[in-house]
Amino acid sequence: MESEEPIDPKELLVTLKTYRKLADDFTNHDTILKDRTVLSYLAYVLDVSDPDIVELALDILEIFTKNVENYVHITSTFGVREALEAVINKYCIDAPKLAKQAQSVRDDIERMKPPIYNLRSRCRRVIEPKKLKTHVIVLHVSGLLPETRAELEATLIRIEGLISLVLDVEHQRITMRTLVNVTAKCIAEAIQENTQNMEARLVTRNKYNQEFLVKLTSEENGESNDFPEYLPEDDDNQEDQKEGVVSLLTGLKQSASTIYKSTAEFLHNSFYW
Which stretches of sequence are listed as region Disordered (predicted)? Predict the structure, then answer.
């Protein structure tokens, strides 16, 4: 058998802290958990002997369980419940606080219900009705800075018909999935009316696939450009539109790659008795 490289606790902490930062924003959850290796990775990390690492992994799982829209991801991933049970048994005497936290997370998972039945969801996103059509809108917002992000986010989440929202402050981009009756123009007008020194322009492409910006709000002459209001909704474009989250996930997967290969073997040896 090939010898496995030793796990670097510092590297694990860096990776987990990045996951934690991403998980704090509920709008990132769907993108994060579509990669099923994330939950399996967290389950694997729970077997590490460092209590600080175990506690951080539990914190991340706890955040995920608070979002009812993660129901399918969490309940369909093998190894999460089993890893939590192992933590409960392992630390019940030496570190009862960890065992209690693991028990709490496990209980939360058992109590989770599909989003359609949980009417008390604290998740900020609107649950999308299956029969309603949606589209993706990408806007460039001049004036979007770390210090103005909260102001913009507070404006956007009040828009009726908004389903999901990803903000990329570094590139001054916002990517939204909305019901089809929500137009890019109405979003731009809401930003103009409710924020200071911010202007939104539609990000679109010409026939040569070159990206350009389209002005949406009217000036004094009352004119505005008439262009398509959203980008084609194919899988490749959706991945590009979420570059702010996906680029971080790519780095995380590279960081975790040296130990994730052991996850399947770990789960098999630990839980198939």
Answer: 220-243
